[in-house]
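TASK: fixed-backbone design
INPUT:
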C-alpha cells in the first residue's frame, strides 16, 4: 500500500506516528511548513526513519500554516493511491481538497480534533463543501465524529484511531510508588508534599491565570509546577497579588525530563480555554496522574470519565477548578484509584496502535 499524507507541520507526534505507519506501508508525507515558529526546539528536529518527508515552499499564513500550490503536483503523482489530508482547514489543505474534487481524486480526511461550528454562515457552508465528499474520515474521538457528521460525513465512513504522542513503552505498567516518587522529587529539587503540575505554552488560551487563582485555596504544603516557558507579567502579578507560595514556572524541557516531573507529581491540571486535543492529558495519564481539565479540552472530554479518572470543570470557572483540586489534594485513596484507572485507560493509546488502526481502516476502504 502507498500512502500520501498531507499535513501542516511535521510535529513530533506526527513524525513518530508516520514512522510506525511506514513499517506497514510505503508512506510519503508532505508538509506545508518545516516547523511551527511558536514552539520549542523539539518541534524543529525531524526524526524521520520510515517514510519520505517533503517540505513545501509557500507563503506563511500563521505560526503553523502556509499556502503552497506545490501540493497539487504530489496529489497528481499519488492520485491512484491512498491520499490522507490531515490539514483540511489550512490554506494548503483547502487547496489539496479542491484539487481532489476538481479531478475526481478520492481523498481521506484525518483530524486531530476540532469543535464544530453552528453550521450557519458562508464559512460553515464552505467547510461542509470541503469535507462532505471524503471517502473515509479518520477520527480519534467521539466528539470528532460529531464534527465530521456536522460537515457531511456519514457514520459508516468514520473509522477510529487512538490519537497519542508516545510509544507503548512510554506507558507505565503501574502507578508510581511512594519511594519512586520521593526519588524523583529529590532529583528534581521538589520538596512540597502535594504537587500539582500543568504543561503548555504560556499563552492566554491555556488559562494559567485561572489555575493560579484556583491554587490560592490549596494547602500550605502544596506546590504548583507550570512547565512551558517564561512567565508573563500577568502571571507574576497574580502570584504577587494573591501572595501565592510554592509556585514554580519552568521552561520547556525534553520528554525524558518532563516524564520525571509527571512521575514526581500528584495531580495534573490543564485549565485550557480551548484545546482541539491536548496531548499533555495523554502524557499525564500515561504516568498515572489524575487529570483535571475543562469542557473545552477534547482530550479531556474523550478520555476523562468525571469522577473515575479525573474531573471535567467548566471553562474559566475558578471556584469549580479550586474545588476539584482541593478534593484530590486531600484524598489519597481517590488519587490512587484514579491513577490506576488512567494507566488502564491509556494503555491502548500508543503510536503502534494508532498506526495499526489507521492502516487497517485504509485496507478496508
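OUTPUT:
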Amino acid at each position: 500500500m502507498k500512502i500520501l499524507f498531507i499535513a501542516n507541520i511535521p510535529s513530533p507526534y506526527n513524525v513518530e506516528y508516520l514512522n510506525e505507519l511506514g513499517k506497514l506501508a510505503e508512506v510519503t508525507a508532505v508538509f506545508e511548513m518545516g516547523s511551527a515558529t511558536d514552539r520549542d526546539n523539539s518541534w524543529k528536529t525531524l526524526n524521520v526513519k520510515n517514510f519520505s518527508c517533503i517540505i513545501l515552499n509557500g507563503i506563511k499564513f500563521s505560526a503553523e500554516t502556509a499556502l503552497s500550490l506545490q501540493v497539487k503536483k504530489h496529489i497528481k503523482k499519488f492520485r491512484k493511491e491512498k491520499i490522507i489530508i490531515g490539514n483540511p482547514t489550512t490554506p494548503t489543505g483547502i487547496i489539496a481538497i479542491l484539487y481532489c474534487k476538481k479531478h475526481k481524486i478520492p481523498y481521506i480526511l484525518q483530524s486531530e480534533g476540532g469543535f464544530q461550528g453552528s453550521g450557519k454562515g458562508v464559512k460553515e457552508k464552505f467547510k461542509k463543501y470541503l469535507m462532505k465528499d471524503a471517502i473515509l474520515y479518520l477520527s480519534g474521538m467521539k466528539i470528532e465524529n460529531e464534527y465530521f457528521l456536522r460537515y457531511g460525513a456519514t457514520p459508516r465512513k468514520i473509522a477510529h484511531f487512538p490519537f497519542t504522542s508516545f510509544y507503548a513503552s512510554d506507558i507505565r505498567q503501574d502507578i508510581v510508588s511512594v519511594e519512586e516518587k520521593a526519588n524523583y522529587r529529590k532529583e528534581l529539587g521538589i520538596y512540597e508534599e502535594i504537587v500539582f503540575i500543568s504543561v503548555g505554552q504560556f499563552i492566554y488560551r491555556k488559562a494559567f491565570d485561572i489555575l493560579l487563582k484556583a491554587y490560592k485555596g490549596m494547602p500550605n504544603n502544596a506546590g504548583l509546577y507550570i512547565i512551558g516557558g517564561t512567565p508573563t507579567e500577568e502571571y507574576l502579578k497574580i502570584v504577587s497579588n494573591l501572595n501565592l507560595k510554592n509556585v514554580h514556572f519552568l521552561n520547556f524541557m525534553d520528554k525524558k525530563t518532563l516524564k520525571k516531573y509527571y512521575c514526581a507529581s500528584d495531580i495534573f491540571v490543564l485549565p485550557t480555554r480551548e484545546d482541539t486535543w491536548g496531548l499533555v492529558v495523554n502524557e499525564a495519564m500515561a504516568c498515572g496522574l489524575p487529570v483535571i481539565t475543562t469542557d473545552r479540552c477534547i482530550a479531556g472530554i474523550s478520555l476523562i470519565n468525571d469522577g473515575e479518572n479525573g474531573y471535567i470543570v467548566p471553562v474559566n470557572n475558578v471556584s469549580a477548578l479550586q474545588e476539584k483540586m482541593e478534593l484530590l489534594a486531600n484524598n489519597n485513596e481517590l488519587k490512587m484509584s484514579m491513577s490506576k484507572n488512567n494507566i488502564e485507560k491509556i494503555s491502548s493509546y500508543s503510536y503502534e496502535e494508532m498506526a495499526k488502526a489507521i492502516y487497517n481502516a485504509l485496507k478496508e476502504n
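COMMENT: The chain has two domains: 2-164+350-363, 169-346.
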